[in-house]
């Protein structure tokens, strides 16, 4: 907080004020919440403490030598928000609660508290106790493209998902979208809840794809969407956001060009990402009989389709719009050049790993 901002706050409250640092334990000891967020306020004897900055180690609080009215507290909370997070044209009570919940989620993630339970002050009318489908939306508009406001994005999402959805801003250009798990039955046109996990995953993929298309058509720019299985927000909200962030990171790292990311499709990628880079490079050197093998677009597209179709030759040929014999010729050629036959399980695993690692190393 700069000197000018501090002077304006003193003028607004009519009392002296200064910014001080405070540990999280000290904040909790004097009556503050265990997980403070920007704008939290404590009323002490003849003075007020307002959180103006939160980090993993400490807080910065604004100490005002006067008691604050509820209206003054709300005005100060708005004044200290980063400019890109301030709602345009006013905001509803639900939006303010959603933003505070998003700040708490982001802080819990930065502190590594993945199993943190949502504090009671964020009950949001009991909506966090229902089964919800979590979507993580990350938008990357160019400088000339306008980022949608909270109200605009919420309106469009309600038209796509339903009025039961919740929109929670977490970071700039990053939103958590919670939709009722009843959407799954609507996607499949079923009267009963979906039980089959494969069908559920297909339905979630369809919903995430539709969400991606809607956002890009409405506002343009590059947009990524990650989705996970339904959960109870009050029990696993922070852990779910961590999983979705990790899924989106792995999807963008290993599968450039894809914009919809699914946790159950990046298990191998997550394992490979945890292997030291030196070990990955040695593996590539040992396995690649021809270093230029994966520089051929035809080879890469053939293998991508082959693995996407679960190594089914007939389905892969259909996906590539080529004759089955043409595909067999390509696979035989790969076997001759590398000694690896992707129609064999062990060799298919090795080639799949090599292909994923190549996609990462080639962009460095």
TrEMBL record:
What InterPro entries does the record point to?
CdaR-like_regulators, Homeodomain-like_sf, PucR_C-HTH_dom, PucR_C-HTH_sf
Specify the PucR C-terminal helix-turn-helix domain's residue ranges: 301-356
Q: Which domain of life is it from?
A: Bacteria
**PANTHER family annotated for this entry?**
CARBOHYDRATE DIACID REGULATOR
Q: What is this protein called?
A: Helix-turn-helix domain-containing protein
């Amino acid at each position: 907080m700069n000197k000018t901002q501090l002077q304006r706050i003193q003028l607004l409250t009519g009392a002296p004020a200064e910014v001080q640092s405070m540990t999280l334990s000290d904040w909790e000891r004097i009556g503050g919440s265990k997980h403070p967020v920007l704008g939290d306020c404590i009323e002490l004897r003849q003075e007020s403490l307002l959180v103006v900055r939160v980090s993993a180690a400490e807080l910065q609080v604004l100490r005002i030598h006067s008691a604050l009215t509820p209206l003054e507290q709300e005005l100060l909370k708005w004044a200290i928000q980063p400019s890109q997070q301030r709602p345009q044209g006013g905001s509803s009570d639900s939006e303010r609660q959603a933003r505070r919940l998003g700040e708490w989620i982001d802080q819990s993630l930065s502190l590594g508290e993945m199993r943190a339970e949502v504090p009671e002050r964020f009950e949001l009318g009991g909506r966090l106790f229902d089964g919800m489908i979590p979507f993580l939306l990350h938008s990357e508009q160019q400088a000339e493209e306008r980022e949608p406001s909270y109200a605009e994005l919420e309106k469009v999402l309600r038209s796509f998902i339903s009025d039961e959805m919740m929109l929670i801003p977490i970071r700039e250009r990053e939103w958590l979208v919670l939709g009722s798990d009843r959407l799954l039955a609507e996607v499949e046109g079923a009267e009963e809840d979906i039980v089959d996990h494969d069908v559920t995953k297909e339905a979630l993929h369809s919903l995430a794809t539709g969400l991606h298309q809607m956002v890009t058509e409405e506002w343009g720019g590059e947009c990524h969407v990650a989705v996970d299985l339904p959960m109870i927000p009050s029990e696993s909200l922070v852990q779910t956001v961590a999983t979705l962030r990790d899924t989106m990171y792995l999807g963008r790292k290993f599968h450039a060009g894809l914009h919809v990311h699914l946790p159950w499709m990046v298990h191998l990628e997550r394992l490979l990402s945890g292997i030291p880079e030196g070990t990955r490079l040695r593996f590539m050197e040992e396995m690649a009989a021809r270093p230029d093998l994966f520089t051929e677009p035809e080879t890469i597209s053939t293998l991508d389709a082959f693995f996407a179709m679960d190594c089914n030759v007939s389905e892969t040929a259909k996906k590539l719009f080529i004759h089955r014999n043409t595909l067999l010729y390509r696979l035989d050629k790969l076997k001759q050049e590398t000694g690896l036959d992707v129609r064999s399980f062990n060799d298919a695993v090795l080639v799949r790993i090599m292909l994923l690692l190549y996609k990462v190393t080639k962009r460095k």
